[in-house]
Amino acid sequence: MLIRHSMTRSPRSVGPDELCRDVFEMFQRNCIRHAAVLEDGELVGVVSERDLTRALPFLIADLDTPAEDTVRVLIGTVMARDPRTCELNDPIDRIALEMQAARIGCMPVVDQGKLVGMVTITDLLRGFADHFTQAGGRAVTLVWTHEDRLPRPDIAALCVVHGLRLSTLFESRADSGADVYLVRLHGKEDAFRAFLRSCEAAHLGVLTTTV
Fold first, then answer.
1. Residue 66 burial (CB < 10 Å; 0-12/13-18/19+)?
2. What is this structure's pTM?
3. For residue 183, what are the contacts with CB-CB under 8 A and spacing of at least 6?
4. Average of pLDDT values for 136-164?
5. Which of 2, 76, 83, 165 sits in a 20 to 30 Å window from 108, CA-based?
6. Distance of alpha carbon 145 from alpha carbon 148, whole angstroms
7. CA separation for the pair 117, 9 (Å, rounded)
8. Residue 119 φ then ψ, to 5°
9. Under CATH, which architecture does the 3-128 domain have?
10. From CA 59, how far away is CA 69, in angstroms rounded?
11. Quick one: which of 164, 170, 155 has its CA closest to 204?
12. Which region among 72-76, 88-92, 115-119, 129-133 has the lowest average model confidence (pLDDT)?
């Protein structure tokens, strides 16, 4: 399954010059815990509820205090700069591992450098749950050995070209160093066969196919 299937689209964003207090109140109203920080339309950071409460611990207890009586701390001073990002066709299992390793709770999703979504741990868990409840399609095991020093094949793009729906894309690394892809596809038989031919042309070895 790909990030495009699990992410939150059109996520809320804030500016670096907004007050932390105002953003915290917006988080509370909308039941969210993360927001992208945009400056002139460009992604410059991510701010979380934890960032806000760490910077202004009195926020939780003193939301009734007039704004002018609180410290005027700006988002730009507490946000995480240069955040890790992912793309629409990234597999959710790989992004889940990256988020776990980096100990982060969200990752902005970009397309050609522009913010198009946000994926959180909750989104990923929902995506995995959806995957395990889905049925049908064909499972394919593909291998890329790196031997020809060619660019990494874009399996998701090949699916789009042949009109197939990609519901699962798991990646792993074999002991030999080859990349192994477990793919589940949905679509017509002739499109599936054309996809396999394209994989072979892209130097992807086809190990197994099952219904």
1. exposed
2. 0.61
3. 139, 140, 141, 142, 155, 166, 168, 169, 170
4. 84
5. 165
6. 8
7. 4
8. -120, 130
9. Roll (3.10)
10. 12
11. 155
12. 129-133
State how far the Cα of 135 lies from the Cα of 50, in Å rounded to an integer: 38
DSSP state at residue 15? -
- Label residue 2 by pLDDT band (50, 70, 90): confident
Please report how the helices 92-102 and 121-133 are oriented relative to each other, as an axis angle in degrees rounded to 10.
150
Name the superfamily (CATH) of residues 136-210. ACT domain (3.30.70.260)
**Pick from 13, 206, 195, 17: nearest CA to 117:** 13
109 SS3 class: strand
Q: Which range, 35-39, 99-103, 123-127, 176-180, is most confident?
A: 35-39
- What are the backbone dihedrals phi and psi of residue 194, each rounded to the nearest 5 degrees, phi first? -65, -35
Domain boundaries along the sequence of the chain: 3-128, 136-210
- If one compares 112 and 182, the residue with the highest pLDDT of the two is 112
Indicate the DSSP class of residue 67: G
| φ, ψ (nearest 5 deg) of residue 134 | -80, 150
Mapping DSSP to helix (H, G, I), strand (E, B) and coil, where does residue 20 land?
helix
Q: What is the C-alpha R_g of the chain?
A: 21
**Measured over all CA atoms, what is the biggest interatomic distance in the chain, rounded to whole angstroms?**
68
Q: Dump pLDDT digits (tens) for 27-76.
A: 999 989 999 999 999 999 999 998 998 887 765 555 555 555 456 789 99
